[in-house]
From TrEMBL:
Names of the cofactor(s): Mn(2+); Mg(2+)
Name of the featured protein: Ribonuclease HII
Species this chain originates from: Epilithonimonas pallida
Main function: Endonuclease that specifically degrades the RNA of RNA-DNA hybrids.
Upper taxonomic lineage: Bacteria, Pseudomonadati, Bacteroidota, Flavobacteriia, Flavobacteriales
Residues that coordinate or bind a divalent metal cation: 17-18, 109
């Protein structure tokens, strides 16, 4: 299914999405992307439906062809202090802050958003599978975070972050039981799931 280009034909739209809400470790990452009618890429879709290599290739296309884009991250300490929902929404705001082109409408994947700079917004359930700007934001955010977790894996190789990217897997849980959490774990999250060892 081809995604719809714009929510409105009138306004400059910024699509926003985040990744990493359900992870036990690592930051939450958000991206904001503005595209126009010249942005034509049939492979752009919800990042969760794309394989790693396709996402990496699309990342370059988005960066080169979007009107504007920005990425922001917030660390586990912020998540622990403000909770993951507020951290996710604040990360979106930080991404929007970095845009050089001021949007006139914000499209948000999901059903929650805090108003931003008096700009109208629409929350769209599964928006990353409906609108190109949100799908592009989901790809940039996921690629950025996955690549970050791969780099952190070099520092903390026991947790399997090069393949689980901080999510709760058996490998991750076994490492938590054996080594305990490290500086990149979210202390406010449940980290003591039972696994068969």
């Amino acid at each position: 299914m081809l995604l719809i280009q714009n929510f409105s034909e009138t306004f400059i739209e910024a699509g926003c999405d985040e990744v990493g809400r359900g992870c036990l470790a690592g930051p939450v990452v958000a991206a904001a992307v503005i595209v126009d009618k010249n942005f034509k890429q049939n492979l752009v879709n919800d990042s969760k439906t794309l394989n790693f290599q396709t996402r990496q290739n699309l990342d370059s296309y988005i960066r080169e062809n979007a009107v504007d884009f920005a990425i922001a991250e917030l660390p586990p300490e912020f998540i622990d202090q403000h909770n993951i929902l507020n951290a996710s929404l604040h990360a979106m705001h930080l991404a929007l802050d970095q845009l050089k082109t001021r949007p006139e409408l914000i499209l948000v994947d999901g059903n929650k958003f805090h108003p931003y700079n008096y700009i109208p917004h629409h929350c769209i359930i599964k928006g990353d599978s409906k609108y190109l700007s949100i799908a592009a934001a989901s790809i940039l955010a996921k690629n950025y975070r996955d690549n970050l977790m791969i780099r952190l894996h070099d520092e903390f190789p026991d947790y399997g972050w090069n393949t689980n990217f901080g999510y709760c897997t058996k490998t991750h849980q076994k490492a938590l039981k054996k080594f305990g959490p490290n500086i990149h774990h979210r202390k406010s999250f449940r980290l003591d799931y039972d696994v068969e060892i």
